[in-house]
Amino acid sequence: MSTNDPNPNLRLGWEEWVKLPELGLPALRAKVDTGARTSALHATDIETFGPQSAPKVRFTVHPIPGSDDLLIPCSAVIKDRREVISSNGDRELRYVIETNLEIGGDTWPVEVTLTDRRGMALHMLLGRQALNENISIVPSERYCQPELDYSVYATPAIRKTAPNRALRIAVLSREDNYSTRRLVEEGERRGHSVEVIDTTRCYMSINSLAPEIHYDGKRLPRYDAVIPRIGASITQYGTALLRQFETLGTYCVNGSAGITASRDKLHAHQLLARYKIGMPPTAFAASPKDTNALIDIVGGAPLIVKLLESTQGKGVVLAETKKAAESVITAFRGLKANFLVQQFVKEAAGVDIRCLVVGSKVVAAMKRSGADGDFRSNLHLGGSAVSVRITKEERSTAIRAARCFGLGVAGVDLLRSETGPKVLEVNSSPGLEGIEKTSKKDIAALIHDEIEANVRPTPLRNRKALDAPSD
Question: Where is the ATP-grasp domain (predicted)?
């Protein structure tokens, strides 16, 4: 198989089946037209991205004429932008890319212009520049080379063989912190375009035909993936924005429903209970008459009182006696704050395990200990951490906990109790600094691996499209 020039003995009819493997197009019908100088590929949603020094173009291809059911997202480096005169005399400025063309087992690089060929019987045209002068063209024949089949797009193999195309990724974050910087650095190292979007500066156009997201007065482009790093103070607005991305069909590392549930500690514990995941006995009530009952449900003092929407250990109080517990509960009620009461696991001795789940695996774990005199082990409060080896049961518990929230990336905090691991919290926006430095693992790279594994060509929704006639 040649990768420089086509076989000079190659014989082509006026129509042939071709492959563009670098674009993830394993079957495409093309018109061979020596009257045209430039080759053209049917492309829609054409937009540029990346640095000015090495600009790229993203576009989508509908490889099956007359069917919009299959959408293949592609990207390539821009080689040129030139004016092309079509057969009817229209002038158009088109982006030019270079990609490998495969016909009948021979492969060679060709220049292709991107244009909207909707309505054309064939979605690719091969011009003179793509053809070696020694190639024999037989204008009266079709398919001199082996025929392919559109059914390849419906097989699982299409996902596995999709090229590592450059992605456009948005990180929803209001902070220039370690986690955000690492996600940007790793994505750009892989050749992706990663943009940090301030969640609160976005606004939405909500309608059934063309929902949009705008940012600083401009419509946001189409992203392949979104990594939400939504702060607790803007959970409601942030998840509303994420729902808009979901409506647009963008892959979101963590979905809006999972983030919403994880931020509400009562909802979170109800979900954990529903899926029979171990956690400390927990109680919740609205009436002050139920204070003693709450304390009894969790086994009496010492116990933990938590605000429902607390983060980083704030709003979490240890009551060592029943009288202290009654005082704390009364104080929280006086502030009209929603809280829950939870059993204090003495044997944990102020130590918890943070398991970082990416996809369906625990990729790193660390043991966190509280500062002197503090039962809370949060690193933000002065705690310390060391790498730890977790048990099979702890690993399974962490994965199940992340899965019940539908989170692609989660920090699951466990306590080691006499009766097995107990889940304290599932964090939908875990910080990367502590876990990366403690475990010595590249967590940002693993998150991008998960994104690349999930952002694939959209599968066919209508099987009938495969049965469309090839004429």
Answer: 269-452
